[in-house]
Each structure stands twice: as C-alpha cells, then as structure tokens.
C-alpha cells in the first residue's frame, strides 16, 4: 500500500513513510509519551523506594489507623466528638473546622473588601484616605503576625473567667471567649434548617424564571423582595408549626469555666478576624481595579438617565466590573483557604493541627501529609470550579 509524506510546504507526497520525526504531529506525540513515561518512572521509583525504606524500619503503612481510637480531645467541633472516637472522625472534625473558617471568612472578606474598594474611589477625601490607609497597612503586615495580634488582644485584653464581663443576662466575655445562650435541643431547629434550604432553592428557581419572563415579555418580577420573604418566612412558619420553643441553654459558671450555652473561642475569633481583615485588603484592590476598568462613559450615561450614584454603582458599574473582578477574586478565596492552616500557630483545631496530632501519635507521617494535601486540593478545586462556572455565567457572549 502506498504511503504519503509531507513536503516543507505541507503537501502530501505518495510513497513516503507514515511515521517520521520530521512530522510535527508525530514529534509532538513522541515527546508527550516520553515525558509521561519519565514522570511515571520517577513516581514509581519514589514510591517503591519509600515503601522499601518503611518496610526496613518496620513502620506500618496504609490508612487502617483511621479506624483506631484517637484518644485525644478537640476543643471545638461541629459534630459530636469524644476522645473515644476514631482518628477518621477526628480528621473529619478538622476538615469541618477549616471549612467553617474558610466559608465565613470568604463571605466577610468579600463584604468588607467590596465596601473598602468602593470607598477608595469615593469623592469624599477623608473616606478615600481612610480606605487607602486600611489597604496599605493591612496588606504590608504578614498574616501570621496579624493572627498573633488579634489573639493577644483577646487573650490578654480580657479578664479571667471568674471576673468575666456580663454586659447582658446570659452573655459573658472573658479570656475563654464570648459565651452566649444557645437554643435548647429541639427537632424544630432541624425543621427550620430544611425550610431555609427549600426557601433558597425556590428563590434561585424564581430568579431564573423571572429572567426568562423578563426577556420574553419585558415585565419585571420582584425576585429580591419575594426571595427575602421566603427565606425569612418559611423558617418562621416551621418554627411556629414546631411549637415555637423558647427554652434556652443558659451558660453557668462552674469551677474554672462556663457550662452550657454557645462559645466563640478566642482562637476562632483570632483566625477568623485575621484572615478576614488581611484578605479583605487585597479584595478591596481587586474591586477598585474592576470598577476603574469600566468605561467612564457608562457612568455618564447612567447620570444622563437620572440614576443616583447608588443605583448607578449597583446596577450599571458593578455588573460590568465583575467580569474583571472574578478571576483575581478566585485567587484571593484560594489564598484565604490555604492561609487557614496558620491556625496551628494560635491553637485553633483546624485540619493541619488535628492531622499533626494524629501523625505524631501514629507515626504515619506520609499518610497524614497526603491527607492534608488531598483535603486542601479538594477544597481549592471546588472553589475554582464554582468560580469558573460563575465567571462563564457573567461573561459577555459574542454573537
């Protein structure tokens, strides 16, 4: 069978060889195969060498240790935990604590950063200068140093437990943190949580329906007020239907600490405040640059239509600025999530802290480090996927 080869101009010539390194396509495939083979070979060497060294030292390998009893306590946990639980459950507590700090920190940093970024562009000289000073000071202080500052402010600036401040009935403020009354255990709270989730889902569905209806008929549906009514109303209906319990678990001083109530620890306050303040300064610059990127003619056009400054910013400028803001904003969200590992320095039981305790007790450092890496990789990829999806949603569609 006759074969073809290509000339320098790309024309096919019968009778040539079908496999030639002079062909760019063939050469690219060969190089990629060689690179993949080299990576696999290096990976195999590292893994086999590591397993061989561990076997020589009689060090156990594998993740079976996750089923053994942890035998250490954790001060803060979103799910039930005791020292009798397994290492696997302790690790899950650490992941949830990291997610709690990251999610709340992202929300607060976004709000504060947006406000500060808009304030930097204010026509009011004092507000603009204060916002600029906030950004310049916070961005140039290392985050770890900021965590130490906030932790020292709380732990050293507040009185001991027996002299705790009591500004309101049932509310105490001391070196152990802020202790407030908590709702007593009742099935109605689960019902309210389900109602809240249903309200959010219905609101999102209404938003999509309202946009399609407006594009089809030009009529505007009040999604904002309707969604607010659903988000507030459905949990309230569930609360009333569940008997409207009013019993509270009040904190009481027992010995050297408080029993009952809900505690916001100094460690959680320090890590959340430090990460929020630090990241918000960078988000402020991202927002400011995004607003500046919008053509000034858009503002002039909005003013010509009689729109006040507030609606102009909210309805005209920010929607267009989002296309510039979202990509670098994703990086700041990822930085905040990864910086949460600094919680180890102030004693907050996050993912890294609990994993370190686990590997110190079990001696299985490789497994512990891979679990930390896998957890942060999964969280970061989830944030990236969501933000990339949102970025595509707001991107301009060329016709």
UniProtKB/TrEMBL annotation:
Question: Does the keyword field hold Membrane?
Answer: yes
Subcellular compartments: Cell inner membrane; Cell membrane
Residues in domain ABC transmembrane type-1?
95-387
- Give a GO biological-process term: amino acid transport
GO molecular function list: transmembrane transporter activity
Key word Ligase present: no
> So where does this one cross the membrane?
28-47, 101-121, 188-210, 222-248, 268-287, 369-390
Q: What is one cellular component GO term in this UniProt entry?
A: ATP-binding cassette (ABC) transporter complex
Against CDD domains, the record matches this protein to:
TM_PBP2
Q: Which UniProt keywords apply?
A: Amino-acid transport, Cell membrane, Membrane, Transmembrane, Transmembrane helix, Transport
- Any one Pfam family here would be BPD_transp_1
Matching InterPro entries = AA_ABC_transptr_permease_3TM, ArtM/GltK/GlnP/TcyL/YhdX-like, MetI-like, MetI-like_sf
The membrane topology term of the UniProt record is: Multi-pass membrane protein
Similarity annotation: Belongs to the binding-protein-dependent transport system permease family. HisMQ subfamily.
- What protein is this chain from? ABC transporter permease subunit
Q: Which organism is it from?
A: Azospirillum griseum
Could you read off the lineage of the organism from its UniProt record?
Bacteria, Pseudomonadati, Pseudomonadota, Alphaproteobacteria, Rhodospirillales
């Amino acid at each position: 069978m006759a074969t073809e080869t290509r000339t320098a101009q790309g024309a096919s010539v019968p009778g040539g060889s079908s496999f030639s390194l002079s062909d760019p396509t063939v050469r690219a495939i060969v190089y990629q195969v060689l690179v993949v083979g080299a990576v696999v070979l290096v990976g195999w060497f590292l893994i086999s060498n590591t397993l061989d060294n561990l076997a020589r030292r009689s060090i156990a390998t594998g993740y079976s240790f996750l089923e053994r009893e942890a035998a250490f306590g954790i001060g803060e946990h979103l799910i039930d935990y005791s020292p009798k639980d397994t290492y696997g459950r302790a690790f899950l507590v650490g992941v949830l604590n990291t997610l709690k700090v990251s999610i709340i920190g992202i929300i607060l940093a976004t709000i504060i950063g947006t406000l500060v970024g808009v304030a930097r562009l204010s026509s009011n000289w004092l507000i603009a200068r204060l916002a600029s000073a906030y950004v310049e000071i916070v961005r140039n202080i290392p985050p770890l140093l900021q965590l130490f500052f906030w932790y020292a402010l709380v732990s050293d600036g507040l009185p001991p437990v027996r002299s705790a401040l009591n500004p309101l009935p049932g509310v105490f403020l001391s070196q152990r943190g802020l202790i407030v009354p908590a709702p007593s255990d009742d099935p109605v709270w689960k019902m309210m949580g389900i109602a809240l989730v249903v309200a959010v889902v219905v609101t999102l569905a209404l938003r999509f329906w309202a946009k399609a209806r407006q594009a089809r008929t030009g009529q505007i549906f009040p999604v904002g007020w309707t969604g607010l009514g659903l988000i507030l109303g459905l949990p309230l209906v569930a609360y009333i239907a569940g008997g409207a319990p009013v019993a509270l678990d009040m904190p009481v001083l027992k010995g050297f600490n408080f029993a009952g109530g809900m505690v916001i620890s100094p460690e959680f306050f320090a890590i959340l405040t430090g990460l929020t303040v630090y990241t918000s300064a960078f988000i402020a610059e991202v927002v400011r640059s995004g607003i500046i990127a919008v053509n000034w003619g858009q503002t002039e056009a909005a003013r010509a239509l009689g729109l006040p400054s507030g609606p102009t910013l909210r309805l005209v400028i920010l929607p267009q600025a989002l296309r510039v803001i979202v990509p670098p904003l994703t990086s700041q969200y990822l930085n905040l999530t990864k910086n949460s590992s600094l919680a180890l320095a102030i004693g907050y039981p996050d993912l890294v802290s609990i994993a370190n305790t686990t590997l110190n007790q079990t001696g299985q450092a490789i497994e512990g480090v891979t679990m930390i890496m896998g957890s942060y990789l999964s969280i970061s990829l989830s944030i990236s996927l969501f933000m990339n999806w949102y970025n595509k949603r707001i991107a301009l569609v060329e016709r």
